[in-house]
From TrEMBL:
It is found in: Nucleus. It comes from Arabidopsis thaliana (Mouse-ear cress). The keyword Disulfide bond does not apply. This is Crooked neck-like protein 1. The lineage of its organism: Eukaryota, Viridiplantae, Streptophyta, Embryophyta, Tracheophyta. InterPro entries: HAT, HAT_PRP39_C, HAT_Syf1-like_N, HAT_Syf1_CNRKL1_C, Syf1-like, TPR-like_helical_dom_sf. Residues 309-469 form the Pre-mRNA-splicing factor Syf1-like N-terminal HAT-repeats domain. Involved in pre-mRNA splicing and cell cycle progression. Required for the spliceosome assembly and initiation of the DNA replication. Keywords: mRNA processing, mRNA splicing, Nucleus, Repeat, Spliceosome. Belongs to the crooked-neck family.
Length: 663
């Protein structure tokens, strides 16, 4: 039979919500009320008591046989015997519990000793504590409680002897401090001092010496406190983890004693001997000290020292963070210590980028540049500067990438030292190993200033051999020859340039060649160049430039103006017949033609050719499938209207024919 689920009409939450925790709690309470507890037994005579004790002891013995190593069973057994006022039996249970392996259980020893103390069996308690500290001397709780018991009993000498026994085991610092406090409670100053002496030998740490020195200060023994600090520095100055703390404490001690110069000397000594990465707190203290007691120079020194620490931490954390090295070097340069500046530069340039990719070297290379400029300008060491440039150029993997800047800086340095042959050698190596446009340009510029024409020609030839597609190089070479009045050489260079199969910016090269011929007044050559250029490309700007050239050459002569009109007409015919889809370029060309004719006073012929501008809408389908419309400008030329009229007549004739056929 199929069960039909019942529909719940009201699904709103009840006003009182019951949690799972409440359900479980209520179930537990009801279960507890039904538990049957055994009836209370009332013992009326000694026989019943003996029977009860026998039964309980048998139960405990059975449990012990089943779980002999369970200390809780032994503790409950002994506590029960104690509750029966049978201390001998209880003591016997404790002794049985400590047999075999259970003697390592310090809980049993504590419970046993507390049992004896609770029942005021002092000698038995002493015996238990004495056995416990012999067997388990590293359990500090035994010693504390043993000493506490003797002190409560007033046995001060006994407590002191226990402390001495404990100290033979070289316990932790807290044990020594408890011994010292014990002696101080009874005003034993000399004893406390002797314990401190043993304490700092057992635990030669900064915190131990500082406690010792504060003890002497508390007892107004300033000279002894200073001796303690001096001993601490002798022992801990080479321990990096402890040195900072003891130096700060010693300086604060001297500051407290109004010995400002001593404190300052300690701070500076510590800053010179402690590694920068571990002296952060020391720098903070020194800055605060100088602000309180020092002059402006002292404060500046403290702040600079703190910044040094910060930069040391940054470069230690990430040696390839060159920005941190730049900041660090800048700080050292403000201080003016040349040896220190040179040391930081050497450390910085030693961190060569791991990957031989130029993007990783672009920041690193400026470390070398700044280093070389420092040696040249500030240190005025010519040989060191030359060595820096040489090492840098040897380090760069020129087969994969290079830096024109470093080559040029090295060459310029040699020129400043009047070592022209050295500069030429550097630039020659640059061209041979890693030729770049900047290097060729600068090398040619240097030779041109020196008037070495033949060297310039050789460099241009080498430049073009390396980069024959560079229109800049061809143009500059031709301009160089033009400046020497070598017109034919310049024209030959231009001709060679435009005959190259690949050029990076051919339009600039043709423009320069045309301007060159125009400047010489060679109109026919210029026209021939334009015609050759039109054979290669019929771009709108080429037509316009050709027409403007003819117009500028007209100078009011009607027959020459016809040349410009002929160019515009050829361009219009080309766009009309060969490229009818380039309507916008054709329209712009006609606008330029109209503007030219306006300057000569005859615009009627061009106006009849101008198109009409029409706004149209183009459907565009989006990614979601919906269609949008985008407006654009279309051009309607005069000859297109005749074509459209013919199409309308043809469509009408076709429609009429369909009607006749239908009837």
């Amino acid at each position: 039979m199929m069960m039909i689920p019942r529909m719940v009409k009201n699904k709103t939450p009840a006003p009182v919500q019951i949690t799972a925790e409440q359900v479980l709690k209520e179930a537990t309470e009801r279960e507890d009320s039904r538990i049957l507890r055994p009836p209370k037994q009332k013992i009326t005579d000694s026989d019943e008591l003996a029977e009860y004790r026998l039964r309980r002891r048998k139960e405990f013995e059975d449990k012990i046989r089943g779980a002999k190593t369970n200390s809780q069973v032994w503790v409950r057994y002994a506590d029960w015997e104690e509750s029966q006022k049978d201390h001998d039996r209880a003591r016997s249970v404790w002794e049985r519990a400590l047999e075999d392996e259970s003697y390592r259980n310090h809980t049993l020893w504590l419970k046993y000793a507390e049992f004896e103390m609770r029942n005021k069996d002092v000698n038995h308690a002493r015996n238990v504590w004495d056995r416990a500290v012999k067997i388990l001397p590293r359990v500090d709780q035994f010693w504390y409680k043993y000493i506490h018991m003797e002190e409560i009993l007033g046995n001060i000498d006994g407590a002191r002897k226990i402390f001495e026994r404990w100290m033979d085991w070289s316990p932790d610092q807290q044990a020594w401090l408890c011994f010292i406090k014990f002696e101080l409670r009874y005003n034993e100053i000399e004893r406390s001092r002797s314990i401190y002496e043993r304490f700092v030998l057992c635990h030669p740490k900064a915190s131990s010496f500082i406690r010792y020195a504060k003890f002497e200060m508390k007892n107004s023994q300033v000279s002894l406190a200073r001796i303690v600090y001096e001993r601490a520095i002798e022992m801990l100055k080479d321990v990096e983890e402890e040195a900072e703390m003891i130096f700060v404490a010693f300086a604060e001690f001297e500051e407290l004693c109004k010995e400002v110069e001593r404190a300052r000397f300690l701070y500076k000594y510590a800053l010179d001997h402690i590694p920068k990465g571990r002296a952060e707190d020391l720098y903070k203290k020194f800055v605060a000290f100088e602000k309180q007691y020092g002059n402006k120079e002292g404060i500046d020194d403290a702040i600079v020292g703190r910044r040094k620490l910060q930069y040391e931490g940054e470069v230690r954390k990430n040696p390839l963070n060159y920005d941190s090295w730049f900041d660090y070097i800048s700080l050292e340069e403000t201080l003016g210590d040349k040896d220190r500046i040179r040391e930081v530069y050497e450390r910085a340039i030693a961190n060569v980028p791991l990957a031989e990719e130029k993007r990783y070297w672009q920041r690193y290379i400026y470390l070398w540049i700044d280093y070389a400029l420092f040696e040249e300008i500030i240190a005025e060491d010519v040989e060191r500067t030359r060595a820096v440039y040489r090492e840098c150029l040897e380090l760069i993997p020129h087969s994969k990438f290079s830096f024109a800047k470093i080559w040029l800086l090295a060459a310029q340095f040699e020129i400043r030292q009047l070592n022209l042959s050295g500069a030429r050698r550097i630039l020659g190596n640059a061209i041979g190993k890693a030729p770049k446009h900047k290097i060729f340009k600068k090398y040619i510029e240097i030779e041109l200033h020196l008037g070495n024409i033949d060297r310039c020609r050789k460099l241009y030839a080498r430049y073009l051999e390396w980069s024959p597609e560079s229109c800049y190089a061809w143009t500059k070479f031709a301009e160089f020859e033009r400046s020497l009045a070598e017109t034919e050489r310049a024209r030959a260079i231009f001709e060679l340039a435009i005959s190259q199969p690949v050029l990076d910016t051919p339009e600039l090269l043709w423009e320069a060649y045309i301007d060159f011929e125009i400047s010489l007044g060679e109109l026919e050559r210029t026209r021939a160049l334009y015609e050759r250029l039109l054979d290669r490309t019929k771009h709108y700007k080429v037509w316009l430039s050709f027409a403007k050239f003819e117009a500028s050459a007209a100078q009011g002569q009607e027959d020459t103006i016809e040349h410009a009109r002929a160019v515009f007409d050829r361009a219009n015919t080309y766009y009309k017949e060969s490229k009818p889809e380039l309507k916008e370029e054709r329209a712009n060309l006609l606008e330029d033609w109209l503007n030219m004719e306006a300057s000569f006073g005859d615009v009627s012929a061009v106006q009849s050719k101008l198109p009409k501008k029409l706004k149209k809408r183009m459907p565009i389908t989006r990614e979601d499938g919906e269609t949008e419309y985008e407006e654009y400008i279309d051009y309607f030329f005069p000859e297109e209207s005749q074509t459209m009229n013919l199409k309308i007549l043809e469509a009408a004739h076709k429609w009429k024919k369909q009607k006749v056929d239908a009837f």
